[in-house]
Here is the input.
Amino acid sequence: MSNKKALFRFHWDCGRMGDLEGVFVAEKSKVESIIGTEVYFGEVLGKHSEVFGELEKDDVEMVTDNQEFIEIFENLNLQSGYNPLDYC
Here is the structure.
């Protein structure tokens, strides 16, 4: 993977506690490098929730690597939810 930016969608099913979701922009190589590593979100789904685990390839989906779209997305500050890169 290159250092080219891409738009990603993150989803983690945490069972009865809920779900974690996010839409974010990152370098493809950085996202690829955290696959298989432990991610610790802390108590993001409530007190004593302790959300953590190994990030798998299916947890993060690349939506697009169209640089024009990504530039607009970033300029409008449309990132939302959780970015697993922030929790490694």
The longest strand covers residues 5-13. Residues 5-87 form one domain.
